[in-house]
Design goal:
This protein is mostly helical. 42% of the residues lie in helices and 10% in strands. It contains three helices and two strands, in the order E-E-H-H-H. Strands 1-2 form a two-stranded antiparallel sheet. The model has no long low-confidence stretch (mean pLDDT 82).
Length: 104
């Protein structure tokens, strides 16, 4: 059944969340699982791309991933700009609002 949501558990609080999932984001996650994720028995979704394939952990690793992707995409981040995943959170929130995605 398609619900256009993703269910996660917050790492800091252990609180389960059900969040809206945009189609292109869901497709990107599916593409990663099918074509980009290293072959591993790890239960974590996102893994390092180099052996040993372990879960991504800590803010520094996530920031490094977002910084690399933004650099490859030609997105410059100047002084005072939001950085890393903080920037992406604001971007996705604005997009969800503009598409009038209902809150659940």
């Amino acid at each position: 059944m398609e619900s256009n949501t993703i269910e996660i558990v917050q790492a800091k609080t252990g609180t389960p969340l059900i969040l809206p999932l945009l189609t292109d984001v869901g497709n990107a996650i599916a593409d990663y699982i099918l074509n980009g994720r290293p072959d591993s028995k790890q239960s974590y979704l996102f893994l390092r791309t180099q052996a040993p394939y372990r879960k991504l952990s800590g803010h520094a690793n996530c920031y490094a991933v977002s910084r690399k992707v933004m650099k490859e995409a030609g997105i410059r981040q100047g002084k005072g700009d939001r950085k890393g995943f903080h920037c992406l959170r604001y971007s996705i929130a604005a997009r969800l609002l503009s598409e009038e995605t209902p809150f659940q």
